[in-house]
Amino acid sequence: MSSLTENPFASTNSLDTNPFDDPTPTHSTFPTNVPAGTANRVEELERRERELAAREQEINRKQEHLRKHGRNNWPFFFPLIFHSIKDEIPEGSQALVLRLYQLWLVLLGTLILNLVSCIFILLAGSDDGGRDLGASITYLPFIGILSFLLWYRPIYNAYMKEQALYYYIYFVFCGFHLLFSAYMLIGIPSTGSAGLINTISMYNRGALVAGILCTVTTVGWALQGLGQAFYYRSIWSHHNQQGHSFSKAKGELAEHGAKAYFTRG
Protein backbone atom coordinates (compact mmCIF):
# COMPACT_ATOMS: atom_id res chain seq x y z
CA MET A 1 0.00 0.00 0.00
CA SER A 2 2.90 2.32 0.62
CA SER A 3 3.81 2.20 -3.06
CA LEU A 4 0.34 3.52 -3.96
CA THR A 5 0.83 6.64 -1.77
CA GLU A 6 4.08 7.58 -3.44
CA ASN A 7 4.03 10.43 -6.02
CA PRO A 8 4.44 8.78 -9.40
CA PHE A 9 5.73 12.06 -10.91
CA ALA A 10 8.44 12.56 -8.40
CA SER A 11 11.94 12.33 -9.72
CA THR A 12 14.19 9.82 -8.23
CA ASN A 13 16.92 12.48 -8.33
CA SER A 14 14.87 15.26 -6.70
CA LEU A 15 17.66 16.11 -4.30
CA ASP A 16 20.01 16.83 -7.20
CA THR A 17 17.55 18.97 -9.19
CA ASN A 18 17.54 22.80 -8.85
CA PRO A 19 13.95 24.02 -9.26
CA PHE A 20 15.20 27.34 -10.63
CA ASP A 21 17.23 25.78 -13.44
CA ASP A 22 15.93 26.45 -16.98
CA PRO A 23 15.26 23.04 -18.49
CA THR A 24 15.87 24.40 -21.99
CA PRO A 25 19.48 24.35 -23.13
CA THR A 26 21.13 27.78 -23.61
CA HIS A 27 23.09 28.66 -26.73
CA SER A 28 25.11 31.79 -27.69
CA THR A 29 23.32 34.06 -30.20
CA PHE A 30 26.55 34.58 -32.22
CA PRO A 31 28.88 31.81 -33.22
CA THR A 32 32.25 31.86 -31.58
CA ASN A 33 34.05 30.81 -34.73
CA VAL A 34 33.48 33.13 -37.75
CA PRO A 35 33.84 31.37 -41.11
CA ALA A 36 36.79 32.48 -43.26
CA GLY A 37 34.50 33.74 -46.03
CA THR A 38 32.63 36.04 -43.65
CA ALA A 39 35.88 37.41 -42.24
CA ASN A 40 37.08 38.21 -45.76
CA ARG A 41 33.85 40.06 -46.54
CA VAL A 42 34.14 42.12 -43.35
CA GLU A 43 37.73 42.99 -44.20
CA GLU A 44 36.70 44.01 -47.74
CA LEU A 45 33.94 46.26 -46.38
CA GLU A 46 36.38 47.91 -44.00
CA ARG A 47 38.83 48.47 -46.84
CA ARG A 48 36.12 50.09 -48.96
CA GLU A 49 35.13 52.34 -46.08
CA ARG A 50 38.72 53.50 -45.75
CA GLU A 51 38.91 54.20 -49.50
CA LEU A 52 35.66 56.17 -49.43
CA ALA A 53 36.90 58.19 -46.47
CA ALA A 54 40.17 58.94 -48.29
CA ARG A 55 38.26 59.99 -51.43
CA GLU A 56 36.02 62.24 -49.41
CA GLN A 57 39.04 63.91 -47.83
CA GLU A 58 40.62 64.40 -51.27
CA ILE A 59 37.41 65.92 -52.65
CA ASN A 60 37.15 68.25 -49.68
CA ARG A 61 40.78 69.26 -50.13
CA LYS A 62 40.24 70.06 -53.82
CA GLN A 63 37.07 72.00 -53.08
CA GLU A 64 38.89 74.01 -50.43
CA HIS A 65 41.75 74.64 -52.86
CA LEU A 66 39.33 75.83 -55.55
CA ARG A 67 37.61 78.06 -53.03
CA LYS A 68 40.90 79.69 -52.05
CA HIS A 69 42.92 79.57 -55.27
CA GLY A 70 40.48 78.91 -58.09
CA ARG A 71 40.20 82.57 -58.90
CA ASN A 72 42.31 85.02 -60.87
CA ASN A 73 45.47 85.96 -58.99
CA TRP A 74 47.86 87.38 -61.61
CA PRO A 75 49.01 90.09 -61.97
CA PHE A 76 48.59 90.85 -58.29
CA PHE A 77 47.64 94.52 -58.84
CA PHE A 78 44.89 93.69 -61.36
CA PRO A 79 44.20 89.92 -61.48
CA LEU A 80 43.24 88.71 -64.94
CA ILE A 81 44.27 85.04 -64.93
CA PHE A 82 45.04 82.23 -62.50
CA HIS A 83 48.78 81.52 -62.31
CA SER A 84 50.24 78.99 -59.85
CA ILE A 85 53.21 76.84 -60.84
CA LYS A 86 52.96 74.83 -57.62
CA ASP A 87 49.29 73.96 -58.11
CA GLU A 88 49.05 73.51 -61.88
CA ILE A 89 52.42 72.22 -63.11
CA PRO A 90 53.49 68.59 -62.46
CA GLU A 91 56.10 68.36 -59.73
CA GLY A 92 58.86 67.14 -62.04
CA SER A 93 58.49 70.19 -64.31
CA GLN A 94 57.94 72.90 -61.72
CA ALA A 95 61.61 73.91 -61.49
CA LEU A 96 61.91 74.41 -65.25
CA VAL A 97 58.71 76.44 -65.56
CA LEU A 98 59.77 78.52 -62.56
CA ARG A 99 63.09 79.32 -64.30
CA LEU A 100 61.20 80.36 -67.44
CA TYR A 101 58.97 82.62 -65.37
CA GLN A 102 62.04 84.16 -63.74
CA LEU A 103 63.56 84.75 -67.18
CA TRP A 104 60.38 86.51 -68.22
CA LEU A 105 60.70 88.72 -65.13
CA VAL A 106 64.33 89.43 -66.09
CA LEU A 107 63.09 90.42 -69.56
CA LEU A 108 60.52 92.77 -68.02
CA GLY A 109 63.18 94.33 -65.80
CA THR A 110 65.52 94.69 -68.77
CA LEU A 111 62.82 96.49 -70.77
CA ILE A 112 62.37 98.96 -67.90
CA LEU A 113 66.12 99.50 -67.59
CA ASN A 114 66.35 99.88 -71.35
CA LEU A 115 63.82 102.72 -71.25
CA VAL A 116 65.65 104.47 -68.38
CA SER A 117 68.98 104.05 -70.21
CA CYS A 118 67.53 105.60 -73.35
CA ILE A 119 66.43 108.61 -71.31
CA PHE A 120 70.03 109.10 -70.20
CA ILE A 121 71.27 108.52 -73.75
CA LEU A 122 69.06 111.41 -74.83
CA LEU A 123 70.30 113.57 -71.93
CA ALA A 124 73.89 112.75 -72.90
CA GLY A 125 73.33 114.53 -76.22
CA SER A 126 73.12 111.57 -78.58
CA ASP A 127 71.85 112.51 -82.03
CA ASP A 128 69.66 109.39 -82.04
CA GLY A 129 68.52 109.76 -78.42
CA GLY A 130 64.99 110.83 -79.34
CA ARG A 131 64.40 107.85 -81.61
CA ASP A 132 65.93 105.51 -79.06
CA LEU A 133 63.63 106.82 -76.33
CA GLY A 134 60.53 106.63 -78.52
CA ALA A 135 61.23 103.04 -79.54
CA SER A 136 62.07 101.97 -75.96
CA ILE A 137 58.74 103.37 -74.73
CA THR A 138 56.96 101.22 -77.31
CA TYR A 139 58.96 98.09 -76.43
CA LEU A 140 58.02 98.07 -72.75
CA PRO A 141 54.26 97.38 -73.04
CA PHE A 142 54.40 95.74 -76.48
CA ILE A 143 57.18 93.21 -75.86
CA GLY A 144 56.28 92.80 -72.19
CA ILE A 145 52.69 91.73 -72.89
CA LEU A 146 53.28 89.76 -76.08
CA SER A 147 56.20 87.80 -74.61
CA PHE A 148 53.95 86.64 -71.78
CA LEU A 149 51.08 85.71 -74.07
CA LEU A 150 53.03 84.21 -76.97
CA TRP A 151 55.83 82.21 -75.40
CA TYR A 152 55.60 82.09 -71.59
CA ARG A 153 51.90 81.26 -71.29
CA PRO A 154 52.03 78.63 -74.06
CA ILE A 155 54.91 76.76 -72.41
CA TYR A 156 53.13 77.02 -69.05
CA ASN A 157 50.06 75.44 -70.64
CA ALA A 158 52.23 72.90 -72.46
CA TYR A 159 53.61 71.47 -69.23
CA MET A 160 50.26 71.75 -67.47
CA LYS A 161 48.22 69.98 -70.19
CA GLU A 162 51.03 68.15 -72.04
CA GLN A 163 49.59 69.02 -75.45
CA ALA A 164 51.66 69.35 -78.61
CA LEU A 165 49.94 72.52 -79.83
CA TYR A 166 51.30 74.64 -76.97
CA TYR A 167 54.85 73.40 -77.54
CA TYR A 168 54.76 74.49 -81.19
CA ILE A 169 53.35 77.90 -80.29
CA TYR A 170 56.22 78.29 -77.83
CA PHE A 171 58.87 77.15 -80.33
CA VAL A 172 57.73 79.64 -82.97
CA PHE A 173 57.39 82.73 -80.81
CA CYS A 174 60.30 82.00 -78.49
CA GLY A 175 62.42 81.63 -81.64
CA PHE A 176 61.40 85.16 -82.68
CA HIS A 177 62.16 86.35 -79.16
CA LEU A 178 65.68 84.92 -79.34
CA LEU A 179 66.29 86.88 -82.56
CA PHE A 180 64.88 90.02 -80.95
CA SER A 181 67.16 89.53 -77.92
CA ALA A 182 70.23 89.29 -80.16
CA TYR A 183 69.09 92.43 -82.00
CA MET A 184 68.66 94.35 -78.74
CA LEU A 185 71.98 93.07 -77.40
CA ILE A 186 73.84 94.72 -80.30
CA GLY A 187 72.36 98.12 -79.42
CA ILE A 188 72.35 99.89 -82.79
CA PRO A 189 71.64 103.65 -82.31
CA SER A 190 68.10 104.81 -83.13
CA THR A 191 66.67 101.28 -82.68
CA GLY A 192 65.54 101.83 -79.09
CA SER A 193 68.20 99.57 -77.62
CA ALA A 194 70.70 100.54 -74.95
CA GLY A 195 72.85 97.59 -76.00
CA LEU A 196 76.52 97.16 -76.74
CA ILE A 197 77.11 99.84 -79.39
CA ASN A 198 75.22 102.52 -77.46
CA THR A 199 77.07 101.47 -74.30
CA ILE A 200 80.47 102.01 -75.93
CA SER A 201 79.26 105.30 -77.36
CA MET A 202 78.21 106.59 -73.91
CA TYR A 203 81.60 105.75 -72.39
CA ASN A 204 83.33 107.50 -75.30
CA ARG A 205 81.24 110.61 -74.63
CA GLY A 206 82.19 110.53 -70.98
CA ALA A 207 78.57 110.01 -69.93
CA LEU A 208 79.39 107.69 -67.02
CA VAL A 209 75.87 107.28 -65.62
CA ALA A 210 74.43 106.54 -69.06
CA GLY A 211 77.29 104.14 -69.74
CA ILE A 212 76.69 102.21 -66.50
CA LEU A 213 72.96 101.98 -67.13
CA CYS A 214 73.58 100.77 -70.67
CA THR A 215 76.04 98.18 -69.35
CA VAL A 216 73.47 96.76 -66.93
CA THR A 217 70.88 96.73 -69.70
CA THR A 218 73.27 94.92 -72.05
CA VAL A 219 73.91 92.28 -69.37
CA GLY A 220 70.14 91.90 -68.98
CA TRP A 221 69.63 91.28 -72.69
CA ALA A 222 72.46 88.74 -72.69
CA LEU A 223 71.31 86.96 -69.52
CA GLN A 224 67.70 86.43 -70.50
CA GLY A 225 68.62 85.61 -74.12
CA LEU A 226 71.19 82.95 -73.20
CA GLY A 227 68.84 81.53 -70.58
CA GLN A 228 66.04 81.25 -73.11
CA ALA A 229 68.35 79.55 -75.61
CA PHE A 230 69.44 77.01 -72.97
CA TYR A 231 65.90 76.07 -71.94
CA TYR A 232 64.72 76.11 -75.55
CA ARG A 233 66.95 73.08 -76.17
CA SER A 234 65.75 71.34 -73.01
CA ILE A 235 62.12 71.86 -73.92
CA TRP A 236 62.73 70.61 -77.47
CA SER A 237 64.22 67.39 -76.04
CA HIS A 238 61.29 66.94 -73.65
CA HIS A 239 58.85 67.55 -76.50
CA ASN A 240 60.48 64.78 -78.57
CA GLN A 241 60.58 62.37 -75.63
CA GLN A 242 56.84 62.82 -75.09
CA GLY A 243 56.17 61.85 -78.70
CA HIS A 244 54.58 65.14 -79.75
CA SER A 245 54.35 65.88 -83.46
CA PHE A 246 53.12 68.62 -85.75
CA SER A 247 50.26 66.43 -86.97
CA LYS A 248 49.21 65.90 -83.38
CA ALA A 249 49.30 69.66 -82.81
CA LYS A 250 47.06 70.21 -85.86
CA GLY A 251 44.61 67.64 -84.52
CA GLU A 252 44.48 69.38 -81.16
CA LEU A 253 43.89 72.72 -82.87
CA ALA A 254 41.04 71.25 -84.90
CA GLU A 255 39.52 69.62 -81.81
CA HIS A 256 39.90 72.37 -79.23
CA GLY A 257 40.47 75.54 -81.24
CA ALA A 258 41.52 78.78 -79.57
CA LYS A 259 39.27 78.06 -76.57
CA ALA A 260 41.86 75.70 -75.07
CA TYR A 261 44.33 78.58 -74.79
CA PHE A 262 42.13 80.35 -72.26
CA THR A 263 41.10 77.36 -70.15
CA ARG A 264 42.84 75.43 -67.40
CA GLY A 265 43.05 71.71 -66.55
TrEMBL record:
The keyword Membrane applies. It is a multi-pass membrane protein. Keywords: Membrane, Transmembrane, Transmembrane helix. InterPro entries: SCAMP (IPR007273). Residues 1-17 have a biased composition (Polar residues). Its main location: membrane. This is Scamp-domain-containing protein. It comes from Exidia glandulosa HHB12029.
